[in-house]
Structures are given as structure tokens and as C-alpha cells.
User: Fold these one by one.
Assistant:
Number 1:
Amino acid sequence: MKSPPKTFHVKSFGCQMNVYDGDRMAEIMAEQGLTATDDANAADLVVLNTCHIREKATEKVYSDIGRIRKEARSKHGTDPVIAVAGCVAQAEGAEIVRRAKVDVVVGPQAYHNLPDLVARAARGESALDTDMPVDLKFGHLPPRRRVSPSAFLTVQEGCDKFCTYCVVPYTRGAEVSRGWVQVVDEAKALVDAGAKEITLLGQNVNAWEDDGRGLHDLIAALADIAGLHRIRYTTSHPNDMAQGLIEAHRDIAKLMPFLHLPVQSGSDRILKAMNRSHTRDSYLRLLDRVRAVRPDIALSGDFIVGFPGETEADFADTLSLVDAVGHAQAFSFKYSPRPGTPAAGMADQVASEVMDERLQRLQAALNRDQAAFNAASVGRRCTILLERMGKLPGQFIGKSPWLQSVHVVGKAAIGDLVDVTIVAAGPNSVTGVMIEQGEGADEAFQRAKLDVAA
Ligand code: SAH
Ligand code: SF4
Ligand code: F3S
């Protein structure tokens, strides 16, 4: 038996959808009258919102549980209620209770029941819920309040693609779209709560549909919300990239010129074994169509190295695809065999050292392209959204339309949209100067250039 918690801390791992879910769980607990605390070790209730995508992510949960317990005990003399949420909760269920003696286990489609589960745990009862109800959780969540200038909005969940390496179809369930009205209402609430930019989220966000309407129709409707300045969406699957969505990048000014479109490999043989259902060529042709309507689009992707059976020749195909695309940024991972997925049982698993070496070469190529993209943006004028303070006095960090981090100094406030000229570029960010009207503008520009050079 533990006394009912008064303070809570939510810690999210994994993808942006988990960040969204973590925010919603915090809103639920706040509505129950609990107070949020930044220190995980001092909270009465700790929610670990977990990720199962690679083995390392999963193992981290168990080490975190041990560490939080130990520090809570030694520093505060407390024994917090520990709730495991997210994809590990879904995948491992009761096994987590056996292995780590946690109080609550709640899956990604059941967390609207968190208050009830926490109350049950406090009474010493079993508190595990990994149901995937047809009636989605969203209708049971409290209204949105106080959000950052750039906010997430989940519009689609789950995945029917069953790539042979991936756990998501098992942890998040089948593809489901939230309804039009509910999404538009939440977007309006986010804008009322301070959002200037909304990123629409889904495991396959471009598969979103409601009554024959697709993601581009939804984006067009959201673009009519006064006070909403920018729209993004992620993650997309190449096979769901409808012509309407491509054209939205030409027709809808509020839709930002950025596309995260994972390809995973440049080898057709490997793509087939991954069950990706697109080819190297169909992917490249798709990008041609996007660039035809929006030449400045910034492209991003995900890559896996060392999928079972990947030879040096297959990997060379991935490198040549990277050369052909020229990504603005990208994520790359060592293949991690996941329990229950077809690839985990495939012959010819690639040795870890071989994966390490390939990952290094791939990341060198991707870093080169990211630096080149940043360098090519020097001299561009654009509007940036200020998201947080930087390290230097008066410095802000904002995002360019192409999702670059932009450092800028000036009189402004977080949440402002300011016009800048990009004057310098580094590997991971660029520097801008605010475009001042009239006298002093040239001087500010020169000063910033000197700062950058120094
Ligand atoms: N729905 C998205 C992203 C899913 S997970 C998509 O289809 O692109 C994010 C990324 O994690 C994937 O794109 C993939 O690159 C990587 N990933 C997924 N399973 C993995 C595994 N078993 N090992 C290594 N990387 C993996
Ligand atoms: Fe996983 Fe493939 Fe679905 Fe993406 S599309 S979530 S990689 S199964
Ligand atoms: Fe991880 Fe689940 Fe997201 S496995 S990447 S938290 S969908």
C-alpha cells in the first residue's frame, strides 16, 4: 500500500508521438489535482513513457526504474508509485511487473485510464491496462491548455505496414485516423493556448483519412485557422504520398517546405526483405515529383544499416542513394532484432562490428549533406519561429521553414515570428540576423558576421 500521490513527473522516450502522449498524461494528472515536478526523484508518481523500437531503448527502462527508486529512497526517503506507459508497456505487459515490481502498466491506447490505475495501485490492487479499445482515448482527455509555440497534434495512430524489423504495428495497433472535427477542434484549442506552429503526428501520418478526405484536405482546413502560422506533418510513408499532398506543398503557404520520408535502405533486395513495398527507384521518382512543385523542400529520412543479409554491395546502394538525394538531415540506426518480428529470425544476421563501421560511413555522408544544406542557405531571408532562449545573453533559438535551428540575437520574445537573413552555417545549426528596417540594418548584419567569424 502506498498513499495516493500528490506530485508527479512524466518522462518520455522515443518518438514525437510519445512526447504528445506524455503531455496528455501530464494534463490528465494535473486535472486530477496533482502537481507536476521537474525532479523525477522527488515525485510521488513517476510515469515512464517508454519506447520499444530498439533493444537499447527497452533496456533503458529497466535501468531507469532501478535508479529512480534508489535515488528517491536515498535523497528523499520516499518510495514513489512507478507507472510504465508507452510501447514497452504494451509489448511486455505483466512481464514488467514481474521483472521490476512496478505499480502500474498502461499501454499507449489506454492511458486515459491512468487516474483509475494509480488509485488501484495505491489500494494495493493490480493495475495493468494494455487494451486497445475501438473507442479511442482522445475523447476522454482533458482540454489543451498552455502549450509551447510549436505544438504536436496526433491525428493518426498505428501501422498496417508490417515492415519485417519493426514492433510498431504490435505496440500501437492497427492504423486509425482521428475524425476531422476532433482534429480541427484540438488544433483551434492549441492555437488558443499559444501554438503558432502545429506538427501533425502519425506513425503513417499521410495515411490519415476521414470520409474520403485525405491529409492535404485537413491541412488546407487547418491553414484557415487565424493565428496558426505554420503546419508540419510527420512521419510519412512513401506509399501514402498522394499527389494532393505533394501539391499542398505548392499551394498552401502555411505548410512548411520540409518532408521526413524514411527510405531505410537504397538496395532493392533489402527493401524487399524489409517488406517496404517501395523500391529505390520509386522512392527517387517520388522525390522528383515533390521537388518539381517545391524545389526548396528540405528532405529528411531514416536509415537502418545491417538488416539481415545486407552485403557490402547493398550498403553501397544505400550510400549512392544518399548521394542522389542530398538530405537536409536524417536519422540512421544499427539494425536491432526485436522479439516477435520476422527479421529477428532471418538467417545472415550482420555482425555488430560490421554495422558499426557501416553506420559511421553512412553518418559521415549524411553529416556532409546536412552541412552542405546549411551552407547553401547562407544569404537566404526567411521567417523563423522563436522556440527557446539560447546560451548567450539575448540569444534565441528558432526554427527556419526548413527546420534548421537558427541562432539569433535581438529584441524579441519566445513565440515571435521574426524575419532574418541567414549569415552563417555550422554542421547542426545556422546563424541569423534579424532584418531591421532602416538605419542600422547593415551595421547589425556586419556585426553578426564578425561574431560568427570570431
Ligand atoms: N513509421 C515510421 C517510423 C517508425 S520508427 C516509418 O515507417 O518510417 C522510426 C525509425 O526507427 C524507422 O524509420 C526505422 O528507421 C527505425 N527502426 C525501426 N525498427 C528498427 C529496428 N528494429 N532496428 C533499428 N532501427 C529501427
Ligand atoms: Fe514500422 Fe514500417 Fe510501420 Fe514505419 S511503416 S511504423 S517502420 S512497420
Ligand atoms: Fe518507440 Fe513506440 Fe514511438 S516503439 S518510436 S515510442 S511508436
Number 2:
Amino acid sequence: MLIKKSSDIFSSEITPEALWQNRRQFLQSTGLAMGLSALPFKSFAQSNITLQKLSSVKSKYVTMEKITPFESATTYNNYYEFGTDKADPAKKAGTLISRPWTVTLEGACNKPHTIGIEELLRLAPLEERIYRLRCVEGWSMVIPWLGFSLSELIKRAEPTGNAKFVEFITLADPKQMPNLKSSVLEWPYVEALRMDEAMHPLTLLSLGSYGQTLTNQSGAPVRIVVPWKYGFKSGKSIVKIRFVEKQPKTSWEKAGPSEYGFYSNVNPAVDHPRWSQATERRIDASSTGINAFLTPKRKTLMFNGYEEVASLYTGMDLRKFF
Ligand code: MTE
């Protein structure tokens, strides 16, 4: 993000074949009514990962907007541990080993513990939540995530009164992640939320998307999704959740404190120092390459349209706390 000019934003190519044109097709093709499939299937020619179908329950958190095609959502990514080009994660994240996997909860809590990915998958019913995700660079997607409120996991650790913030620490293994040799960011990639933000029901612990486990480039096997904040707050491939008293410094704040604030709520009224945040382009199969410039811009909504979180920021100057 820091190193991209706005003119570069839509330069990557996305396979034009749309597998996921709209919600109806999506439901038909994933067969969401089905239970956990015994037959994992491969979906990427370019990676060796095996995706597993996941069952889910209905969620009240759905937008009826057109879902971003699966192919677009998984070939136009930010996952800097695998490179800074939007196409890098799909090409290079095949080396990420997402099983076995554990997440450790530690810090200011009564019950610090480590939980394995299989137990995490059973912790609460997986909901299919269709969220908008708005990237700070000016593009957005609509993704059918599978997961449950992060609060379900946090509650198990019994945070103490000193837990004012929650830090998300992601995997940093140079053997699996070729771009850790670069100093584009400080590794591991760290993100954080205020405790009440982390406990908000909209904050999702995601274990899948598009009816199946997460692709590596999407942050397998477990990531956070905070739909009212710019996409970089949604850390991928989480290994530690730490409860802390002081506001942590995140990787992007360290890289560019004047550009990437701690809160990073989607806010059309507060420009990024190098570009406006008033509008965005919705990524779909036809919005890449030269077509990117033909895709009409749409107005960015305050809190990405998730107005129910506004009360978390009552009395705060959102220009100062950007
Ligand atoms: N998590 C890690 N570990 N590394 C990253 O580089 N990029 C962030 C976020 N999570 C990133 C990350 C950014 S900048 C964005 S916009 C979103 O992931 C992109 O998520 P997507 O690729 O699923 O659209």
C-alpha cells in the first residue's frame, strides 16, 4: 500500500472467467445446504492447497449486493509476506502450510490457552456473512465469509480489566513466506483493535469463504475481518491473539504513521494524504486491466455502510483518530 501509486492500483490482471457471478449462482454452486464434504477439492491450478467444503448457518449479516467473483477475490490480493503485487499471493502462497495450525491467546486474561484449528472450526456454528471489504487503496469487494464473531473466542480466554486492546499477530516464517526477506513492513504483520471493537458482533473470525476453507492467499487457515475498517486491519493467518493494556503499534502504523492510523475506519470525509477516499471501485471480473478505468466509481460510505458501529466512536474526532 505504502509503495503503490494510485495509478498502479488496477494494474494486475484477473482471470476474466467469472465463477461467482451473483448470489444465486453462488448458493447453487457451493451447495451451502450440504454438510461438511468428505471430498476435498482443488480449486487452483497454481497452488497445491486443498480446499474443504464447510457447512454454515444463515446469518443476519448479509449484504444483497453482487458478490465478487471467487476468481477475482482470490487473484487480486494484498498479502505482503508473499510479495507486494496483487497477483503475487495467488501465485506464491502455495508454500503456506495451514495444517496443523494453532492460535494462542495470551496476555491480560485469566485463561490463556492455545487452540487447534480443528477445535476452532467447531467452537461455534459457522455463519455465512456477506461483507463489503474496502481497501485503503480505493477498491472494494463483496465476499461471502464463513466464520463467527471473534467475541466467541475472546470470551473463552476471560480477558481481565487490563485488557484494553487486542493484538493480532500473524505467521512470519521465512521458509514459507518468500517476501519476509524484504523490509517493506516490519514482520510479523501485526494488527490490533480496541477491546470494544474486537468484541463487536460484526468483527468476524473467519475460517472460510465461498463455502469452503480459506485459500492461502485469503489468509488460511484463520483471519480477522473487520468490515467497517480499511482492509489492512483484517490480519491474515493469525497465530496469536494478545490482550494488552496499551494501544499497540501496528505494522502499517510503523511503516507510515501519517498515512495509516490505528483506527482506520472507512471514512469518505478523511482523505489519505496521497489520495481521496471519497469514492471506490468495486472489483469484479471486468474491472481489471484497461477495464479498471472504465469501471464506474461509487461513493464510499461512512464506516463502509456499517453504521451500527458509529456509537463506538461517540465523542471522538475521527480526523484526529483516523
Ligand atoms: N495480513 C497479512 N498477514 N499480511 C498482509 O499483507 N494485507 C492486508 C490484510 N491482511 C495483509 C494482511 C491488506 S492491506 C488488505 S487490503 C487485506 O488483507 C486484503 O485481503 P484480501 O486479499 O482477502 O482482499
Number 3:
Amino acid sequence: MKPLTTLPARDGFRMPAEWEPQQQIWMLWPERPDNWRNGGKPAQQAFAAVARAIAGFEPVTVGVSQAQYENACYRLADPAIRVVELSSNDAWMRDVGPTFVTNGRELRAIDWTFNAWGGLDGGLYQPWDLDDQVAGKVAAMERVSRYRTEGFVLEGGSIHVDGEGTLLTTEECLLNPNRNPHLSREQIEQILDQNLGVSKVIWLPEGLYNDETDGHVDNFCCFVGPTEVMLAWTDDPADPNYDRCHAALSVLEGSTDAKGRALTVHKMPIPGPIHATPDECDGVDSSLTSQPREPEVRLAGSYVNYLLVNGGVIMPSFDDPADEPARQLMEQLYPQRRVVVVPGREILLGGGNIHCITQQQPMP
Ligand code: KQY
């Protein structure tokens, strides 16, 4: 289906917050052996655990390659999980899937241009053509009209909204010359406004240390509700995240939202430092078109990389001493929701976590 030629906000559409009612969650099935160790088998187990956890709250659709179709159907057998054949280059639905917008009666999809987190200037793999088609295919399957931001690069993990006109992002990602070097900060803000119906953008300087997406906000800071944010946090000055967290806090404390309200910041501990073991790295195929995995490189583990579903929170654990305090804080912040903890290490080894591998389709 051809994309619309108008602009979402002008058509009366806005991006709802993640806590607003959802129809379903979209995911993709991991298989590429140069990103997921041991032919993707441990990652498939981890993704299946996430899909099953979500299915306890609402329907899930998982897109899978033709080659993996039968295997995925077998491993995802659950009445609330639909498996559909859908080609992709990897499995990051947050970033390659559509951003849904609503006018209260109808849902539409925004199909951002995708360049694998930086294209030929630091991108994570090539080619990425199948990934770039995922949003359009999802919109077609759902019979949802689609806007395409041809030439404007954005990944869903680089933004969080409160649904009331405020957007959180990082300069490290959205102002990175490997995304939209032809656009100024003001022009980017205007495009975000035109597409998502946001009148206030809060720019955090950086995301989490060593986040291979160039600092996606969804691994670092998110809205918990209107005027409330969660920020990944360390008090250890020796941690490379220390300056990043403190810089973000000072921006958040000095900001108001689109309605002029001050923000309350909840500090979520950062797990680790977490590293892949030599054995885990050894299980990843070597390839000229993706990045190598090294045990020396600290992984960007974060509890902020969680997903809200209807009545629930799906959050990662890392076999880390901070797991329990993190779960307790989550329960405190979401007293009306059931918090489900799913092992996140295997997803982290591939470069992200639960929020990165999921995309919500809201109710209109
Ligand atoms: O949103 C994400 N965290 C995606 C990361 C992509 C990693 C590819 N190796």
C-alpha cells in the first residue's frame, strides 16, 4: 500500500504513551548467527520466554523467516501468540517496526527510514533492506494507513513519549552525524512534532556507556507516567556511566514537560559491570558485515529496557545483585501492574533488551 502524503499531527494523530491500552505486541525471531551465539538457539529461548510473559497479558505477533517458521511455531506454541512469516535482517522490532499514532478513532503507522543504527558510518550490519521494509509490512498486515519518513532516519528505541506532548531522546543518537546529518536540532524537533504530535523535546546529552545504538534513550531513561521518569543510575564515580547519569539528571531536573510541569526522577540502579564470557563471544559467527564480540567490552545492561503491557511490566534480570532492588523499585513505581521478570542476559549479548525487541500496537 502506498504511504500517505500528509503529516500525522496535522491529520490529528499523536503517539500514545506506552501505558495507554494496547491491542498487541509485535516481535521478530532471532536467528542471524553473526549476532546471536550458537546459531541463535539460546536467544530463541530467551525471546520465547519474553513472548510467553507478554502473552499472559495480551496477544503477541512474532515475525519469522521462512527458514525458521516451523521451529518458531513449535517454540512459541501458545494460543495468545501468532507467528507470521516476515523477512528481516535481525530481530529488533522496536527499531524496525512502525510507531503507531492515533486520533482516538483510527490507528496509523509511521514507517521511519532505518539505516541499521548508522548506515555505513558505524552501523551495526549490512544490508538492512529487509529491516527497513518491516514497518510497512506490519502496517499492511494490520490494514493500517502508513506515513513514510523517506530520508529521515529514526529508530523507535531512540524516543520515549508521555502521550501528552513530551518526548525524551538523546543528543548522542538523534544528533549523531550517522543518522540525519543534513538536519539541525530545530529541524529534527519539527519533524518529531509533525509526526508524533509532541511540542516539547527533552534532550539528554548521552545514553548508557557502550550502547551500540549510539545511546538509545530506551536503555537509559523513560517515562513511568506523566511527569515521572526513570533514569539508569550509578553513584560510583569510577563507573563510566557516572557522568552520563549526572548530566541527564541535571537536564531532567532543569526541564518541564509540554504542559509546563516539573519532572520527578526515579533512579534505577545499573547492573554489573556485565561482560560476555570468552565462550559466549566464541559462539558468535565472525562476519565482515557485522561487529565482532569481545569479552573486554562492557555490555550496556539496563533494567530501564523494560516493556509495559496491559496490566503488566515485563522487565529483564541479569543474575546480578541489583536484580532484586530493581524489581522492588519497579513494583513500587507500578503498584497497579504485575511485574514479570524474564532473564535478559541472552538478549543483552545481542545488543539490547526487552524494550528493544518489542513494539506495542496501541488501541485506537
Ligand atoms: O535497540 C537495540 N538495542 C538494537 C541493538 C542492535 C544490536 C545489533 N547487534
